[in-house]
Amino acid sequence: MDMLKPIEAEQELKTGVRLNPGPWEQHSVSVAQNARLIAEKSAVMDCDRAYAMGLLHDIGRRAGVKGILHIFDGYDYMMGMGQEEIARICLTHSFPIKDVNTFFGKYDCSPEQKSFLQRFLEEREYDDYDILIQLCDAISLPNGACIMEKRLVDVALRHGLPDFTLDKWKAFMNAKKHFDALCGCNIYSFLPNVLENSSVNLV
Predict the structure, then answer these.
(1) Domains and CATH numbers, the chain
(2) Which has the closest alpha carbon to 76: 111, 44, 41, 116?
(3) Which of 188, 34, 171 is nearest to 99 (CA)?
(4) What are the pLDDT digits (tens) for 19-43?
(5) Is the pTM of the predicted complex or chain greater than 0.70?
(6) Cα–Cα distance between 72 and 120 in angstroms, integer?
(7) Residue environment code for 33-60, b if the CB has 16+ CB neighbours within 10 A, otherwise e
(8) How many CB atoms lie under 10 A from the CB of residue 147?
(9) What is the pLDDT of residues 34-83, one digit of tens each?
(10) CA 81-133-146 angle, 5° bins
(11) CB-based contact 16:60 (threshold 8 Å)
C-alpha cells in the first residue's frame, strides 16, 4: 500500500488529537515541518514521505496519555491501516541506539511487547527516514527547531543522567552530522527559529 499523502496524514493527526488533545499535536507538526525541510534540502529524500512520517510518529498518543506504550499503540494502528513504513517509524523514533532500555519515560508495556521491540530494533537496518525522524524528534519545539545540545541538557535536567546518556547523545550528534553532509550545510542555517528557541530556558 502506498504511504499516506500529506493531506491524509494531516487528517489522521487531527482525528487523533480530537481523541486525545494535547501538546503532542504541535510537536508532531513541528517534527514534520523540520523533516520536510531537511528532506527537501538533501535532494535525495522524498519530502512528502518525510513529512507524513513526522506527522504520525507519535500517532499512538491518540489512545491516551501513556509512556512507552504509545509507540506500540501507534505501530498497531498504522499496521492496521497497512502503513508499514509509518508503523516502523512509530517504533524506531525513540531509539537512536537499538536498546529498549534507553527510553526516557514510563515502561507501561508488557514484557512480551518489550521483547518484541528489542527484536524489531535489532533486525531493522535504520535508513535515512528512521534517522531523520529521530533527529527531528530531538530538536523540534512547537514553533520550530533548537540546537540539539539545548534539548539534550533540558532532558537531562528533567530525567537525570542514566548510564546510556552519552551513547544516546553521540547517536543524535552523528545523525545531525549525517544530515549536515547530505544537505551540504549546517541544518540549523535553514530550520525555523533555531536562534530564538536556543536562547530561552526550556525547563
Answers:
(1) 6-198 (1.10.3210)
(2) 116
(3) 171
(4) 999 999 999 999 999 999 999 999 9
(5) yes
(6) 12
(7) bbbbbbbbbbeebebbbbbbbbbbbbbb
(8) 17
(9) 999 999 999 999 999 999 999 999 999 999 999 999 999 999 999 999 99
(10) 140
(11) no
Sole residue written with cell 544516546: 168
Q: Cell numbers at residue 121, please?
A: 530494533
Q: What is the 3-state secondary structure (H, E, C) of the chain?
A: CCCCCHHHHHHHHHHHHHHCCCCHHHHHHHHHHHHHHHHHHHCCCCHHHHHHHHHHCCHHHHHCCCCCHHHHHHHHHHHHCCCHHHHHHHHHCCCCCCCHHHCCCCCCCCHHHHHHHHHHHHHCCCCHHHHHHHHHHHHEECCEECCHHHHHHHHHHHHCCCCCHHHHHHHHHHHHHHHHHHHCCCHHHCCCCHHHHHCCCCC
Q: Angle formed by the axes of helices 148-159 and 165-183, to 10°?
A: 160
Q: Are 3 and 160 in contact (CB under 8 A)?
A: no
